[in-house]
Amino acid sequence: MKNLAVRTLTGAVYVSVVIGAIFAGPYVFASLFLIILLFSLNEFFSLIRKGTIRPLPVSGFAIAASIYSLLFLISHHLIGNQYLKLLLPLIILIPIVEIFRNIENPIQNIAFTVWGVIYLAFPFAIFNQILIPHANQPELYEPELLIGMMIIIWSGDTGAYLVGRFLGKHKLIERISPNKTWEGAIGGVVMAILIAMLFFSFFNYLNTLQVILIASLTVIAGTLGDLVESMIKRNFNVKDSGKILPGHGGLLDRFDSLLFAAPVYYVLISLFLN
């Protein structure tokens, strides 16, 4: 009972902070999620240190923060696209630093560091892009679009849990996530579609077919994102990515679905709204 209370309280605070940051405006949101990005990347590096891999955290943090910040500034037309060239010298930073570390498994160290940056920095940067989906109108800040994506993922998770618990019989990918079932996955998609149709009915952005397509593909992508993080944790024999969120684990445990869902969702809304 105590664990449920802690989990519920943590979840309420987490949702309140995220939603509050979205409505606080682009700069508050971007600043908060830059911090979350760096903490999440640190969790990822901590996970892979459970094995024989020794990532390069300082280089990884620098490149991830640079990617995130540059994409935010460019999308808001605060700097030009030519500043993306600043990322080119940073790309060679990781192998150069590795040369001087004299640590075992240098290639794996480099590969996992680069993977961590790609795995987290670009999806987190896309969160900002979803809030301003019109490329030529960065002043049009649309908080309901990002909230819509999160509602789709949260409702999909709820539907998958409920249907999987009561009707689940056929395992989805048992070797990675033994509790997930095909019935739960289908239930999650159906729940997400229904909630998304209700949510977007308050706006004039999308028609019914577009909402069904967005909700279903976003939930599928989110499920795959959750499975990928489960695969990483299982590989290193870890239950949670961290302990920063009591009752929920780490930040990666909360954002794993969104990391894969965000690119899919962003592409779809960009196609339908522009």
Question: What does the model show?
Answer:
The protein folds into two domains: 26-137, no CATH class; 141-274, no CATH class. The protein has 274 residues and is mostly helical. Strands 1-2 form a two-stranded antiparallel sheet. Helix content is 72%, strand content 3%. Strand 1 and strand 2 (177-181) form a beta hairpin. The chain contains ten helices and two strands; from the N terminus they run αααααααββααα. The N and C termini lie far apart (48 Å).
Task: Spell out the key features of this protein.
mainly alpha; two-stranded antiparallel sheet; 10 helices; 274 residues; 2 domains
Quick recap of the structure?
The chain has 274 residues and is mostly helical. The protein is 72% helix and 3% strand.
